[in-house]
Structure formats: structure tokens, C-alpha cells
Amino acid sequence: MEINCVVCGKEKLDKDTIGINKKILSNEISDFYCLNCFAEYLGCTEEDLLEKIEEFKEEGCTLFR
Ligand SMILES: [Zn+2]
Description:
Blueprint lengths: L14 H10 L10 H8 L3 H13 L7
Helix pairs in contact: 2-3
This protein binds zinc ion (ZN).
């Protein structure tokens, strides 16, 4: 399944990006943001999100498998 950013239309969001969307927003969402737009939406930086992704992976979160 191809998922595009709902804001800028960036195509084929990767699994990590989709995972962090679900983790922070909800498992039920159907609109996804690319890292750039998601950082803007949350008022943080892309770097912060990448760090979060790494943290969640280390915790063994299944959304990132
Ligand atoms: Zn975007």
C-alpha cells in the first residue's frame, strides 16, 4: 500500500514515518504526514522525530517492524 503525505503530497512514505505517525497520533489514522510536515505540525524538528523513532525501535515497538 502506498501512503502519501496529506499536506505536501510526498509519495511512498516509509515504514518508520508511518510508524511514528501512528505512535504519536493514533493507530486508527488514515491521513499521514511526511517527517517534514509532521515536525511542523508538532512544532518540533525532523531530528527530534528521528530520535523518537530510534527510541521506539529500541523499546521494541511493533509499529516499526
Ligand atoms: Zn509532507
